[in-house]
Amino acid sequence: STPIKSSAASDVYKRQHSTRTLLHAVASMVPYASLPSQCIHLSGAVLEEIEKDYDLSTSTIKRGLKWLCEHDAIRRIGRGTYQVNPYLYARGPSRDVLKLQREWDGMGGE
């Protein structure tokens, strides 16, 4: 599974600027690894804020989220709810981050 993880990072950073910008916006919302929920909720208001703050259109955000999911940078948990791949972005002590990474692997994120 290691090649896939490094491939996800490589794919993201080769992607166009708007997708990297979107990933940065989403990753900035990542909770600390020690918290029970690692979900990021992208409500309409949050998406509007991303549009305004990062100068991205709604269609660019939707395409970017789809692409990031397809390339294992984020995972869609439910409607408007995502988790960022902890191999790309995580916050907190290394033991908590390692636990998140093991959980990510167990959820079929390969």
Walk me through what this model shows:
This protein is mainly α and 110 residues long. Helix content is 55%, strand content 10%. β2 and β3 (81-84) form a beta hairpin. α2 crosses α4. The chain starts with a helix and ends with a helix.
Rg: 13 Å
N-to-C span: 6 Å
Biggest sheet, spatial arrangement of strands: 1-3-2
Which spans have pLDDT < 50 for at least 5 consecutive residues? none
Backbone shape: globular
What's the total count of β strands? 3
Strand content: 5-15%
Order of helices and strands: HHEHHEEH
Helix share bin: 55-70%
| Overall pLDDT score | 86
Write out key terms for the chains shown:
three-stranded antiparallel β-sheet; 110 residues; single chain; mainly alpha
Provide a concise account of the structure shown.
The protein has 110 residues and is mainly α.
Which secondary structure elements does this structure contain, and how are they paired or packed?
Blueprint: H1 2-14, H2 17-27, E1 40-41, H3 44-54, H4 58-70, E2 74-78, E3 81-84, H5 94-106
Antiparallel strand pairs: 1-3, 2-3
Helix pairs in contact: 2-4
